[in-house]
Design brief:
alpha/beta; nine-stranded mixed β-sheet; two-stranded parallel sheet; 17% strand; globular
């Protein structure tokens, strides 16, 4: 009886070890913007191969990086999606926790839409005007100091804009879309305005935040609306005075209800985004934990499928839901590097993408 119990216990232990060290189903986390694309590839993998459909969670780019970099054990994600590039501090966090073999995949372009309900008149706004609408501090009338943002209507910023309440539904701090918006719209604008940069020069230690100013107002004008961009879409159809900030793919998905604003005179279209003419454009990414590949055999097939012309090419499936293809030569080189499992380095991250 004792021998039988011991044998059963050993078999159970062995089964548990196998279940912890190998897994059929891929686990993915990360960006809500990349989520529709990752989900489409996941469904295709489940439908056309022997592997089960991967689990894809929308945690935001920042939240996904924390989970991905937590360690190498099989309870951690195999892949994290991101709507901005991995940060150096995230790479170092991964290294600290033993995640030292990562491959970076760039899958295509996306624009950040500044959208409204379709029933409104067309809206043309500049990057500077959007920045001044969301910033916590703006220049005083004489332009010599910064004051708490007093703007309540768009016409308060510029008389040429409509006499319309400023209300903006946008992503939270954990979002890659928020990171990209802050970098391109806020930091990109304020680094050219002396009132911000002079504060930094005057007292670098005290005023460090003014070097690259991206502090969003918290007085109810900018409303953080979670990691699910569909929630922002729903809010815009209820509050027709409001604007929303989210990825271009969600604008395309809801073009019967919403309209994208022109930014600096350019509409968010595939050609304008891929050429860089649309001023709020960025690349989309996913990152693989290569230490998991031997225990999660589906990973290699998923990566190969995602990077295929059938998915990310000019006439690919993902283009139908809003992904904008990379140039041919760049796409081919990235595909080659990703399928080969090219190891990401901190030096590589420091280079402009």
């Amino acid at each position: 009886m004792t021998i039988k119990k011991t044998t059963i216990a050993l078999l159970a232990s062995a089964a548990l070890t196998v279940s912890l060290s190998a897994r059929e189903q891929i686990k993915m986390v990360g960006s809500s913007t990349v989520y529709p694309f990752a989900s489409a590839v996941a469904e295709e993998l489940g439908a056309t191969t022997k592997y089960p459909t991967p689990v894809v969670e929308s945690t935001g780019s920042g939240g996904g990086m924390k989970l991905f970099c937590a360690g190498n054990d099989m309870n951690t994600p195999d892949i994290t999606n991101a709507s901005r590039r991995m940060k150096a501090k995230e790479f170092k966090m991964c290294e600290k926790n033993g995640v030292t073999d990562i491959t970076e995949a760039v899958v295509g372009f996306d624009g950040i839409a500044f959208a409204q309900d379709k029933s409104n008149n067309a809206f043309n706004v500049s990057k500077k005007q959007i920045a001044l609408a969301v910033a916590a501090e703006v220049p005083s009338k004489d332009g010599k100091s910064l004051i708490a943002n007093p703007y309540k209507k768009w016409s308060d910023i510029d008389a040429s804009l409509p006499n319309r309440e400023i209300i903006i539904y946008g992503p939270p701090k954990s979002s890659g879309t928020r990171d990209a918006f802050e970098d391109m719209v806020m930091k990109g604008t304020f680094k050219k305005m002396a009132v911000y940069t002079d504060l930094y020069k005057a007292d670098k230690k005290k005023n460090k935040k003014y070097k690259k100013y991206a502090v969003v107002r918290t007085d109810g004008v900018y409303v953080e609306s979670g990691e699910n961009d569909n929630i922002i879409v729903q809010k815009l159809t209820k509050n027709k005075a409001a604007f929303g900030i989210f990825g271009y793919s969600f604008l395309i998905e809801n073009d019967d209800k919403l309209a994208g604003s022109q930014v600096d005179g350019v509409s968010p279209t595939p050609d304008a985004i891929s050429s860089g003419k649309y001023p709020i454009s960025r690349s989309l990414f996913f990152y693989t934990k290569n230490s998991h590949k031997k225990d999660v055999p589906a990973m290699s097939k998923y990566v190969e499928m995602f990077m295929s012309e059938n998915m990310i090419g000019h006439d690919g499936i993902l283009g139908e839901i809003g992904l904008i293809a990379l140039p041919d030569a760049q796409r081919a080189q990235i595909r080659k590097d990703v399928i080969a499992g090219k190891k990401l380095t901190l030096d590589e991250l420091s280079k402009k993408h």
